[in-house]
Amino acid sequence: MKVLYLRAPTGLDGAYPDFVKANDGRFPFEVYGPDEPMAEQFESVEVVIDPGGAVGTRALIDAALAANVKLWQVTTNGTDHVDVAYFLEQGLPLANSPGRLSAVPLAEHVIMLILCFAKDLNHNRAAGWQKAMGEELAGKKLGLIGFGASAREVARRAWPLGMRIMAIDVVAFPQAELDEFRVEFLGGPEQMDHVLGKADYLSLHVHLNETTRHMIDRRALDLMKSNAVLLNVARGELVDEEALVEALQQGGVRGAGLDVFEQEPLPADHPLLRLDNVILTPHSSGYTPDTPRRRMEAAVENVERIAKGLPPGDLVTTLVR
After folding, report:
1. Residues 7-20: what's their mean pLDDT?
2. Average pLDDT over all residues of the chain
3. Where are any strands of DSSP class E within the chain?
4. CA-CA distance, 71 to 307, in Å (whole number)?
5. What is the set of active-site residues?
6. What are phi and psi of 212, to 5 degrees?
7. CA–CA dist 305, 289 (Å, integer)
């Protein structure tokens, strides 16, 4: 049982020590050398670990196919930066890191953003004794677009603050689950307009695909309340940033808390950086010591499943996720 850990031309990623610790000598592994012959490095390899999913190229995938690799394991949840179509076309099993492994830090980040806007920390300063009127969250409506792991953790933390939870998802969850997370309203995608028009805070928790790209466009922003706040810790391209900037400048929405952007890093001249009704963080909402540890532990668990002849978990089986 041999594992190949991919290394980018720029060097090993920061989570490599977490993989070494999670593996703890259980399975032999080698680190891929970009400057060494490719095919030879894949000999006898059964699992490829692709940190972040950004290292894999079609040439590397072809080498894995030729070597009869049994699993290509990506260590992030999002797969919009992975050539999923090629994996599916060629029949090479692809697994990702389940969203539940980073759900807690993402949810905590969303709650932090909500509180920053509720207490208007952009303008509430002791320097110069500048007082800004805050608001109470009790009774405010929180709209969750997507009700997967991270959205559920947001709901779990928002309800004790007195917020009222609404959600949109393609899945119709049983009432017992909705009661657990105090969800007052759950609708399908066709009812998204209802949530857009009611939410005081709107938080995005969906994967990026052709259906969800720019789901928050001018039309969606026009439907939102003028005192609403948009929150995005999922994927930048879910939001039409040009339309959002316009809405923020013209008072169409009160503010935006963004951790992800259409272009990353955010260009130094981006208009979002010049607005005082936004809070921007550098795609860091899931950036805690525990997240890569959990992801690498899950990756090694999949290696163990392959070693035991079991099917791997968290397989990516479709382009629309």
Report:
1. 93
2. 95
3. 2-5, 29-31, 45-50, 71-74, 94-95, 141-145, 164-168, 183-187, 201-204, 229-232, 255-258, 278-280
4. 11
5. 235, 264, 283
6. -95, -15
7. 25
Q: Does residue 145 sit in the same domain as residue 81?
A: no
**What is the domain-level CATH number for residue 23?**
3.40.50.720
Above 80 in pLDDT, residue 157?
yes
Same structural domain for residues 117 and 262? yes
Which pLDDT tens digit goes with each residue over 36-63?
999 999 999 999 999 988 789 999 999 9
At 177-216, the pLDDT tens digits run: 999 999 999 999 999 999 999 999 999 999 898 899 999 9
Q: What is the pTM of this model?
A: 0.89
Shared domain for 194 and 291, answered yes or no, is no
Q: What are 235-282's pLDDT values in tens digits? A: 999 999 999 999 999 999 999 999 999 999 999 999 999 999 999 999
One-character DSSP codes across 160-186: GGTPEEEEE-SS---HHHHHHTTEEEE
Q: What are the distances in angstroms from CA 222 to CA 197, 200, 205, 296?
A: 9, 14, 20, 42
Query: Same domain, yes or no, for 162 and 270?
Result: yes
Q: What angle do CA 311, 312, 317 make, to 5 degrees?
A: 100
> Which residues constitute the domain of residue 187?
101-278
142 and 82 in a single domain? The answer is no
